[in-house]
Amino acid sequence: MVSVFIVLTGGVVRVTGSGLGCPTWPACETGSFTTTPELGIHGFIEFANRALTGILIIAVGWAIVAARLQKPRNRTLTRLAWSQFWLVIANSIAGGISVLTGLNPYVVAMHFVLAIALLTTTTLTWHRARQAVAPTEVPAAAAGRASGILSVLLVAVTLVLIVVGTLVTGSGQHSGDSADVPRMGFVWQQVAIVHGVLGTAVILLALALYASLRARSDTSLARRRVIAFVVVTVAQAALGLLQANIGVPAALVAIHVLGSALVWVGALRVLLDVNPGLFRTVRSQVLATPMTATLR
After folding, report:
1. What is the pTM of this model?
2. Sign of the CA dihedral 160, 165, 170, 175?
3. 90-91-92-98 Cα dihedral, nearest 10 degrees
């Protein structure tokens, strides 16, 4: 939950022009680790986003401890928890580099992609814990070869959609600070069209996947995941069309950034529930309830 929220606050930093609210890193400004009154509201917004990283590290640390305490020990879960920690550190460094480079749009895009990587590991961790704690929610068998291929394609095209989305943002008007911040050398309208085409392809793939799942009676959970994914993705597409036609207002851009995180998590959950054995180990292991409570 915190890893999704930090994506939203990162979007708020961008659309409010607070990307350089703290003009240096790791300190907020020379001689002060925290924001100062002289930095104004932009300094407060940027520092609040940085402070949220500390909360995220605490949450990930608790997940690591909880994973280590499982009896019998679950190595996969422990490794996933540790991967979250290193991705938080990497993302923090990328955020610092983006400040030190004056919000270079390619570094900012990398910063967002690392946030998506963190969402990937948190989703996999949650799914791994759920498999043993609530085995009845997981289908007994994979949904079939065609459905498996479609689910992999869905995740792959969704990832491309999100990466192209960073090009749309990097070429658009919300640079994260002043008009002097460099932008990517793409024509915004053209990359926005490519982004829209990819979004349509994702929705069509999801519908095709749902149709393939209906051929089997033991795929009710996977079908529900696909329906939820389609609803979120269609809402995200409608929001994108709306903001493109009314001048890309800041509030809608921030919500759209949050939506991209939800779409990605939704795609991963579709993949995992269409292919329930994808991340299982050969040996069955029992996870304690406190671990799942930590990850929710």
Report:
1. 0.85
2. negative
3. 110
